[in-house]
Amino acid sequence: MNASLGTIFDIQRYSIHDGPGIRTTVFLKGCPLKCLWCSNPESQINRPEIMHDTSRCTHCGRCLEACPYNAIERCDDKIKLVRNLCQGCGECVSACPNEARQLVGRQEDVEAVLKEVEKDGLFYKNSGGGVTLSGGEPMSQPDFVHSLLKKCKENRIHTVLDTCGYTQLENWDRVLEYVDMILFDLKQMNTAKHKEYTGVPNELILSSAKKLSSLGIPMVIRIPFIPGYTDSHKNMEDSACFAKEIGISRIELLPFHSLCINKYNKLDKEWKLNGISPPSEEFLEKARDRFNAQGLNCTF
Ligand code: SF4
Ligand code: SF4
């Protein structure tokens, strides 16, 4: 595998929620988890894929004619993508007269990403910012992450790694010398529920958290606050205990939202959390206060 090539789906400049200061967030594609509440469903598969906006589609069929892999069919007068045949070549995107199709994800080399990141060097300097690698799960591309972080540090750029922690423990040894801060997602302390909601158990994640916290790299535990899934008193209590056990005091609650539903539709994926509302400010404040009463520093 070429370590200087990675699959990314976005680079966001002027980000202020992914670590200190003003940052550029690089979103890597591919994730071993499939969280029910995932707000970036386009990040889950590790290759480029098509988003199809049916509200713009006039069923003209030009994409169907343009596809070299016969991955598009007409079905009951509708245009349907056979996703397992799609090679992500983008021919259909160019052929569509209505901008109803979008190719998400591309391969980039380290130098190209670095060039983009370096554009805001002055902002980083003045705000204490830098680059954040997010996703998806960045550690699903450990070779690329290693190369990119190394380059950033050679160029004196502050680095943050936003991770769900689900990676073989030896992968950490290759990247951590180039990481200045970790944002660690901790979703559900009960491993059976974790598996039910994300597709994987949590043991490896907890082992990663223990390993990372023992190294003295600044770390924030981020808990997605999902009504009915992660927001129980028990899960908050267990998360607080675990944070204290591994010596991490900074907790950030990430409130649920459903702004991503449209992306699920465009990817032909099912949004399974219909009917769930974002948590109230009051409920979040109570949860925050419970963490803080235990000597932790919780925000949302
Ligand atoms: S991206 Fe390429 S393979 Fe996939 S549907 Fe479009 S034209 Fe066909
Ligand atoms: S080319 Fe665009 S508008 Fe025409 S059928 Fe395909 S997606 Fe729809």
Give your account of this protein's structure.
The protein is α/β, with parallel strands linked by helices. The chain folds into 2 domains: 5-46 and 106-299, Aldolase class I (TIM Barrel, Alpha-Beta Barrel), CATH 3.20.20; 49-103, Alpha-Beta Plaits, CATH 3.30.70. Helix content is 32%, strand content 23%. The chain has helices at 62-66, 91-95, 110-118, 121-127, 142-154, 169-175, 191-198, 203-213, 233-245, 261-266, 281-293; strands spanning 5-15, 23-28, 49-52, 72-75, 78-81, 101-104, 106-109, 130-134, 158-163, 181-185, 219-225, 250-255, 297-299. Strands 7-1-2-8-9-10-11-12-13 form a 9-stranded mixed sheet. It has a two-stranded antiparallel ribbon with strand order 3-6. The chain has a two-stranded antiparallel sheet with strand order 4-5. Helix 9 (233-245) links the parallel strand 11 (219-225) and strand 12. The protein is globular, with a radius of gyration of 20 Å. The protein starts with a strand and ends with a strand. The structure holds iron/sulfur cluster (SF4) (2 copies). One iron/sulfur cluster is lined by residues 57-63, 79, 95-96, 98, 100-101.
Compounds present? iron/sulfur cluster
What does the radius of gyration come to?
A: 20 Å
| Annotation field: number of helices | 11
Q: Name the beta content range.
A: 15-25%
> In CATH's first tier, which class of the largest domain applies?
Alpha Beta
Any guess at the CATH architecture of the largest domain? Answer: Alpha-Beta Barrel
State mean pLDDT (0 to 100 scale): 97
SSE layout and pairings?
Elements: E1 5-15, E2 23-28, E3 49-52, H1 62-66, E4 72-75, E5 78-81, H2 91-95, E6 101-104, E7 106-109, H3 110-118, H4 121-127, E8 130-134, H5 142-154, E9 158-163, H6 169-175, E10 181-185, H7 191-198, H8 203-213, E11 219-225, H9 233-245, E12 250-255, H10 261-266, H11 281-293, E13 297-299
Helix pairs in contact: 3-5, 5-6
Bound molecules: iron/sulfur cluster (SF4) (2 copies).
